[in-house]
């Protein structure tokens, strides 16, 4: 049975048996003080502030028996999945694969690449290591979601205008209906978050819908 969720630009009709939550890149290196994001000079407190809301959202999906997908921006240790143009971006010593405060930066298996303990995946959930900003490039996620009959994706995570928005746009092009939970996503740059949400909902929801978590919870109450 479909439920109506108040959202922008208009109500989102969610079908619980066809919907999955995607939690984008809630990994230690982007969010914890002392990690890669902080070393780059970003104010990570904006990102740590959403952790309780993301945890509540994950709990909501688990309570309702709906699928949860977690992603990490992660490269293989030999960097064979990291294009040179991405590898060489930024200052020497602070590039993908370099040794950082929490192990090698954006490398699978390193401490900084782990999802925050408060948001850790549980058995039965999908974890995707993605070498790109978008979650479908060089991953098998689309096939996995098709096999499970998922047609709607609810998005959370960081950062709103980079990996979240890129993944939403990829999903939109693949035919998924996408709803962004606006208080469960964040950016180091508040103006970029606000602009990304406006871009998503503009022109009748050209990329998707946006709503606060409370609106989703109320629709199921
Ligand atoms: C970035 C991400 N910002 N997860 N990654 O490089 O948004």
From TrEMBL:
<dbReference type="GO" id="GO:0016787">
    <property type="term" value="F:hydrolase activity"/>
</dbReference>
<dbReference type="Pfam" id="PF00857">
    <property type="entry name" value="Isochorismatase"/>
</dbReference>
<feature type="domain" description="Isochorismatase-like">
    <location>
        <begin position="19"/>
        <end position="207"/>
    </location>
</feature>
<dbReference type="InterPro" id="IPR050272">
    <property type="entry name" value="Isochorismatase-like_hydrls"/>
</dbReference>
<protein>
    <submittedName>
        <fullName>Cysteine hydrolase</fullName>
    </submittedName>
</protein>
<dbReference type="InterPro" id="IPR000868">
    <property type="entry name" value="Isochorismatase-like_dom"/>
</dbReference>
<dbReference type="InterPro" id="IPR036380">
    <property type="entry name" value="Isochorismatase-like_sf"/>
</dbReference>
<keyword id="KW-0378">Hydrolase</keyword>
């Amino acid at each position: 049975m479909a439920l109506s969720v108040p959202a922008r630009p208009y109500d989102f009709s969610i079908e619980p048996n066809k919907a999955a939550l995607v939690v984008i890149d809630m990994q230690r290196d982007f969010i914890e003080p002392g990690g890669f994001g902080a070393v780059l000079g970003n104010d990570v407190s904006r990102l740590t502030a959403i952790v309780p809301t993301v945890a509540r959202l994950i709990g909501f999906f688990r309570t309702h028996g709906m699928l949860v997908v977690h992603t990490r921006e992660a490269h293989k240790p030999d960097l064979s999945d990291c294009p040179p143009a991405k590898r060489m971006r930024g200052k020497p010593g602070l590039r993908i694969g370099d040794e950082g405060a929490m192990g090698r930066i954006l490398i699978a298996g390193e401490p900084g690449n782990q999802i925050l303990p408060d948001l850790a995946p549980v058995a039965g959930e999908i974890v995707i290591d993605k070498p790109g900003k978008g979650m479908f490039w060089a991953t098998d996620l689309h096939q996995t979601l098709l096999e499970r009959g998922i047609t709607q994706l609810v998005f959370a995570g960081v950062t709103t205008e980079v990996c979240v928005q890129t993944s939403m746009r990829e999903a939109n092009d693949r035919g998924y209906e996408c709803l962004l939970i606006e208080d469960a996503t964040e950016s180091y740059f508040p103006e970029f978050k606000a602009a990304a949400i406006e871009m998503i909902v503009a022109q009748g929801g050209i990329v998707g819908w946006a709503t606060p978590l409370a609106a989703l919870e109320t629709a199921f109450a």
